[in-house]
Amino acid sequence: MQFEFLLEQVVNGLVLGGYYLLIALGLSLIFSVGGIVNLAHGAFYALGAYICVELTSRLGFGTAVAISPLAVALLGILFERFILRRFYTADPILSLLVTFGLAMVAEQAIRMIWGAAPVSTEIPQSFRGSVIVGDFLFSRYRLLILGVVAAILLGVWLLLHKTSFGRVVRAGIERPDMVAALGIRLQPYMTAIVMLGVGLAALGGAFFAPITTVHPAMGAEIMTIAFVVVVIGGLGSFWGVVIAALLVGVVRGIAIHFEPAAGEASVYILMFLVLLVRPRGLLGERIEKFE
Amino acid sequence: MIRYPRRTVLRAGAAFAGAAALGFPAIVRAQAEKIRIGHLTPLTGFLGVIGGYAQLGVRLAAEEINASGGILGKQIDLLSEDSINPATAATKAQRMLEQDGAAVLLGEISSASALTIMQVAERNKKVFFSTGARSDALRGKSCNKYSFHCDIPNTVMVNAVGTALSQQGMVKGKKFFTLTADYIFGHDLLKAAKVFFGAHDANLIGDELIATDVTDFSPYLLKVRQAKPDVVCCNLAGNQVTNLVKQYAEFGFPYPLVGFNLNTGDAWAAGAGNLSGIWPTVWYHTLDNPTSKAFVTAFTKKYGKPPENHAWIDYVTLKLLAEAINSTKSTDSGELIAYFEKQAQFDIGKARKAYFRSWDHQLVQEAYPFTVKPKDQMKDQWDMLVLGDAVPAANDPLETIYPAKEQNPCEMKA
């Protein structure tokens, strides 16, 4: 019985990891291609949640979850064009400052538009409750999220590895100078990557709006764990982030099973250990421009 | 594109993320030559949402008092700031008393921060009204002469809900699983719950201590299911309650969820359709009496939404403080304490008047259990709760639901 309970926590951890992945993947992509640590990433996650809540009351949950990330991705164009683009070659401290400032501006803007008190929405009736598969209990709603994350993961992988777009992006991560020498401008690709990254964060926010507190500071809340995932996974590696996200979810679940008090600390201990053994992160590649 | 060492960038990134967690105080300040009153409440973090309401309430009270001539003919100069965490709360309290010349302090929701402010108040020999902190220990073994406690303590919340649960046959012989906030408030509430379970033949089969920054409760919910309890009981605080309530609705367990602590703000944040069960409250905006109604009208007019219970308690506290200063014609700590210890009665917007009990400085007042209105019967998004009968019952003395002297280790030094 004890073992089954543990296994249940492991499986639940994988589901939670899938959700962390939505936030961390974009953060990692933007850093890999543009070299910018986007501290405003959480703001897009929060915006995704708020837009979803706002639209749910008018259009229903399904439509809201689809539109919210698209709307945020469009905002991503402005974000890349008018802000990020100026900082690709600048001292990183400047991009940290500007994205940090933007995160604060976004949080206050949300407070001005929607108020300081949380807003709420609920899961559609058809996705409420849990299903029991074999010996395991799943929240029906989280299974839905897991399915969507799996589909997105496949899509992003295909985009990066099987299309000419992806080839340029990957070349841009490794050797931007070479890409430039070949006469390819990386900027439109960067715009697309930022759209994808912040759109994924918004999707995470939209999906979590019905099961967590939707409040102005929620963006800041999610950033720490997203950072942990990116650092553990290692830079420039698609699968590194995937594995790290799942690992973080699982380690937290196991820790809570055996030693609940260590539950929240466990992911930081994991990060510490990974960095001790592999300072580059689990699957981080040696990338010249970052060394 | 860039040529910066990856680790430098990540390190700086982590530093910024850390700095963001510290939060930024909202500082409200007016001119000197007035009666300064210091107000501290959490505006960020897991209690930030309900703290926001507290700040709106105390500001409204100050405006009303000033509009009607102030206290002793002087206007109130209210300094209201984010208390952030226990250490910062103490630093700010000290600064307000020492540098800003505040005559009295009030506020707070976090029991941990209230405790540090109480120590500052005692050291400076100034009165502090802990308006929203509920830990029994504050008015128990940690009590001091300069601190007054306005919200109902944990024991009263447990008694209010426990009595209602007992009447429905949900206590005796039942298996309880509790989820508890991992700080002084939660520990204290769990202790009060254990006393109640012990006295009413209920079994506590499991408890999980949960850190205040947890947002995903799924691993804990799995442990609840593995334990197969009869009733799940929430001893959490602030955003924790909202997150638990939403995720409990998500998993749809058959075990009823009840709680020994809830603030209306958390219920509103959870939203209609997610909350169910029996919970306690100290005040709700539908209470039908003139003082309460006048406050609700003024608050709604000013802020465009009804007040939450922390808005109410910070509002009535500043009002009763003004009444005390006007009566004693002094802001001297000794005179104020003597006035309150005579158990002066105050209209706080409830059927029965309230008073500070002389020996532990607890504001003795009614409390209420509540259930949740079905979604289709709600007039608006704020109309969520159905209040049960006030506890204690109308013909019982108010003090019957509070810890008696032999149960409460409060000893005040002269």
General description of the model:
The complex is a heterodimer of chains A (291) and B (414). Chain A is 73% helix and 3% strand. Chain A has 291 residues and is mostly helical. Chain A has a two-stranded antiparallel sheet. Chain A is globular, with a radius of gyration of 19 Å. Chain B has 414 residues and is α/β, with parallel strands linked by helices. Chain B contains twelve helices and 15 strands. In chain B, the strands form four sheets. A five-stranded parallel beta sheet of chain B has the order 2-1-3-4-5, with helices on both faces. In chain B, strands 7-6-8-9 form a four-stranded parallel beta sheet, sandwiched between helices. The longest helix of chain B has 20 residues. The N and C termini of chain B lie far apart (70 Å). The relative contact order of chain B is 0.12. Chains A and B meet through helix 1, helix 4, helix 9 and helix 10 of A and helix 1, helix 2, strand 7, helix 7 and helix 8 of B.
Helix percent band of chain B: 40-55%
Count of helical stretches of chain A: 11
Helix content of chain A: over 70%
Q: Count of DSSP E strands of chain B?
A: 15
Q: Write down the overall mean pLDDT of chain B.
A: 91
Strand order of the largest sheet of chain B: 2-1-3-4-5
* Overall average residue pLDDT of chain A: 90
> How large a portion of the residues of chain A is in β-strands, by DSSP E?
under 5%
Overall shape of chain A: it is: globular
The chain-level structural class of chain B is alpha/beta
Helix/strand/pairing category of chain A: mainly alpha
In N-to-C order, the SSE pattern of chain B is HEHEHEHEEHEHEHEHEHEHHHEEEEE
Q: Which blocks of ≥5 consecutive residues of chain A have pLDDT under 50?
A: none
Q: Give the ordered list of helices and strands of chain A.
A: HHHHEEHHHHHHH
Distance between the termini of chain A: 49 Å
| Number of helical elements of chain B | 12
